[in-house]
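can u do me a favor
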């Protein structure tokens, strides 16, 4: 069984790194293709899928940090101007809470998103050293994308990890974190689909994944009863409760900051938010996700909610240090577009997490030394 190695950041973002090269990672570039990790890939026809997400493989991926251009502005309707309210909500979720474009938009040789290919899918999104590839799907309104898919089919792929097919339903590879999105609210799923329908059509036929990435059954949905709740006496309880939804049900903080398991249950419920997941992105040092619990020695117990917001919005920690990828933070990255209220809600939820001691050793620095 392939080892699951998390590729996506919280809300999943993987971008091209100016430092490092493909020889270091053992990867062979393919045209304008760019590897990465995020979420929400749905296609059309027999090869349609929601195949790209936050868990990855021991292959390769390039990543960047908060200084990269916000891919969500490369297509669609800017910041949502001109969209109906439901679709505008979906754009916000897609571009800033989940960061879908960071997996589904090809990048050029300089690592910048190709604007005219916004959400058109990435060939060989993950490539193993042996050459097998997993591809992220075309989400545009073209026939090679979502045009021939019904709303219900798209929702089934995003939430259940099942690709409806005339020849029989197929399970999606759990690199797509559908097991997290199983808990997304119906109205938000409706909004996501409504926005996807507005994305201009781009003809880009994506091949099927190589056989090594085929799975027999979908991963189990994340049990919401196992996700930590803010304590009843937490001073910002209502804010933290909203943040819980953004961090664990519609967004992917829990996905990046929890160790992954083999088998049908992808995340270890005994280790939610304790960090320690490695991201082999070809950097001089392998980034490791941080312990987000309230432990003072090894987690964020000494951080204020405002300091956590600063990280999300500006990609700088309280010591003034930059963040290693794949954290999607910073003014030009996905989290830079979070509303102030949502960023504070996420921060309050993180502050509400019970303290668990778990020392995480992370030698990555940004910019790389």
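np, heres the sequence
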């Amino acid at each position: 069984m392939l080892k699951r190695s998390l590729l996506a950041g919280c809300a999943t973002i993987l971008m091209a790194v100016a430092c490092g090269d493909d020889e270091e990672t053992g990867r062979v570039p393919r045209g304008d293709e760019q590897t990465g990790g995020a979420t929400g890939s749905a296609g059309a026809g027999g090869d349609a899928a929601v195949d790209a997400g936050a868990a990855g493989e021991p292959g390769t991926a390039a990543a960047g940090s908060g200084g990269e251009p916000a891919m969500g502005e490369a297509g669609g309707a800017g910041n949502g101007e001109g969209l109906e309210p439901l679709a505008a909500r979906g754009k916000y979720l897609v571009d800033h809470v989940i960061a879908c474009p960071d997996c589904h938009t090809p990048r050029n040789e300089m690592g910048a998103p190709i604007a005219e290919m916004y959400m058109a899918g990435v060939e060989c999104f993950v490539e193993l050293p042996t050459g097998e590839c997993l591809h992220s799907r075309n989400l545009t309104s073209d026939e090679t994308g979502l045009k021939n898919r019904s709303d219900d089919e798209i929702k089934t792929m995003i939430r259940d990890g099942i690709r409806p097919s005339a020849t029989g339903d197929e399970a999606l590879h759990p690199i797509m974190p559908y097991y997290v999105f199983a808990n997304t609210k119906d109205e938000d799923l409706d909004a996501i689909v409504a926005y996807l329908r507005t994305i201009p059509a781009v003809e880009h036929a994506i091949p099927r994944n190589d056989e090594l990435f085929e799975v027999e059954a979908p991963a189990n949905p994340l049990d919401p009863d196992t996700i930590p709740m803010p304590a009843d006496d937490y001073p910002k309880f209502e804010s933290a409760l909203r943040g819980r939804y953004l961090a664990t049900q519609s967004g992917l903080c829990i996905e990046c900051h929890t160790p992954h398991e083999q088998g049908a249950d992808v995340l270890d419920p005994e280790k939610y938010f304790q960090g320690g997941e490695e991201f082999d992105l070809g950097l001089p040092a392998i980034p490791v996700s941080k312990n987000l619990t309230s432990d003072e020695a090894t987690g964020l117990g000494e951080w204020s909610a405002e300091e956590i917001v600063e990280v999300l919005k500006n990609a700088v920690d309280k010591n003034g240090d930059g963040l290693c990828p794949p954290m999607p933070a910073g003014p030009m990255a996905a989290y830079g577009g979070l509303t102030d209220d949502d960023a504070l809600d996420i921060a309050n939820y993180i502050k509400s997490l019970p303290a668990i001691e778990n020392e995480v050793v992370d030698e990555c620095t940004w910019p790389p030394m």
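Residues 90 and 191 are 4 Å apart (CA to CA). hope that helps!!
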